[in-house]
User: What shape does this take?
Amino acid sequence: MRRVILDLFAGPGGWSHALTVLGARDVGLEWDEWACKTRARAGHLTIRTDVAAYPVWIFSGRILGLIASPPCQAWSIAGKRLGLVDQPVVHQAVADLAAGRDTREQLLGACADGRSLLAAEPMRYLHALNLVGEPDWVVMEEVPDVLPLWRQYAAILRSWGFSVWTGILNAADYGVPQTRKRAILLASRVRTAEPSPPTHAPSAEPESLFGPGRARWVSMAEALGWGATDRPVPTVCAGGGPGGGPEPFPSGSRKTLADARARGTWTPHPDAETAQTSRRDGPHSAAWTDECRPADAPAPTFSSEAHRWSWSLRSNNLTNATVRRADEPARTLFFGHRANECTWVADISSNLPDGEQQPAPIKITAREAGVLQSFPADYPWQGNKGRQFSQIGNAVPPLLAAHLLAPHLNQPFNPDDFTLAA
Assistant: This one.
């Protein structure tokens, strides 16, 4: 019988897409309707179910590897972080499940946030599967505050004969255009568990006696295909965003074309020798208007002499929001109950001539957010804008996932196999 990879809390397919690139497949368990629809459109196998209620015996004797990314809302800095309050209860649930005692119903009433207890759910599967000597390997991912819980898992898994590694990894160190830090657990019965060496660093490293140095972190502009300069120029129209794709305004707040013109469309006066031309419109386009670009068209770019400002991504509308230049990786992307507050903002580098206005902030599109999470630009996100952004913010970056999974699959991994912007 062919053994399969089981993916708990599978989401829209971050782990699944990584496995596809590596020539493997998983069976995902996921409850959210729209994440399941996204997975279906992407071709991933899915059982729509409550992970906490699904019987484990169905998989007994069939599991090669187990993946788990429990929902992070109870622990994330984007929420109330009641998971930290509930942590002793979750630790108790893990200890009980590891001993074959199911006390979840009693402990649930003691939780300030019922979602906290989902972080103990993988142990229910692991205990049942361990009785038949499965799985061969385990990979789990969560927000950094869950690391103490992963260490508890690690101690239990070691007592069952696993080699285990736990720690915090930064997705930017593995080529993801985002400084997303996550608590990781890697465990294996058949090899030493440890993460793959990082491929990227904040600054490019020179070649040494030990081989080539790590490449520089991938910037947002590079990932989005925003041209040869570090100063991409987002444009906005009725139906297009900074990098093309869907309308830049979330559902329920569509703006008029006149408002869109005021927010983002402008007419630069580039020097003929310094203007960077678009591959779509050719060398004769001296001004950008509100004509919509197709999703696969690159964003137009101009040199610093041409447009006098560069673009940055602002994480939310709070006064202390993180702002990152487009020539840097994004900060951790998360989208709360307001769906999307991430905006491209223009940085003025000199006084504007009469008649020119600074562009107003432009909301990031779901397509762009997905690329910054290392999904391909054409990934088939389903649902309205709010549901798409929620899926993206909660997903594991597929590029990071591939680095973590490849050693367990004994598969060579070439990061160039990942296509981001199209």
User: Anything to note?
Assistant: The chain has twelve helices and 13 strands. The first strand starts at residue 4 and ends at 8. Residues 228-233, 236-307 have pLDDT under 50 and may be disordered. The CA atoms of residues 88 and 149 lie 10 Å apart.
